[in-house]
């Protein structure tokens, strides 16, 4: 019974950590998406358009 309690505690810890990692990842993804939307035309795209015009 004690073994199950330890396993349960470990499982909870792993779940909490993975949730934290997932939240951090989602936040980073959102931040990069927002910055991409804010600068609708990134410099690379501008260079590509300029090269296409030549």
From TrEMBL:
<protein>
    <submittedName>
        <fullName>Uncharacterized protein</fullName>
    </submittedName>
</protein>
